[in-house]
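Record 1 of the preview.
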Amino acid sequence: MSVAAAPPRRGILADNDVSPREEMWRRWHGDEWSALEALPGAVRRRIQEHAYDAWSVNVLMLWRMFRRRTASSARAERRLLRYLDECEAMEQAAADAAHRRIYGVPLPHVAAGASVLRARAVDGRGAGAVG
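->
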């Protein structure tokens, strides 16, 4: 049995992403699940913990580009993980700036100095909370 989704009502957002991301980045279209599965495990875990939807098709394109440029999967993985951290920080800063323009106050989690929670690996390694 298939259920068709109701079309979004005029003037109502179709999802809950109200950040300025669409203005910051170009989103490449493709099969999100296939792209996610094609990424190395560490990158998959990192985008699953990303504070915003990391758009796995975009991440796969970056992974392939970094791998070509570095000629090393290990270096490409490290570069991509650092780049995802930078993108997440830029997205949070943009969302905070937009929130300040609209409401005159910072985002609550920014004002509180809260960090993005990250899972720890079973062996105790992992980023933990990143702020």
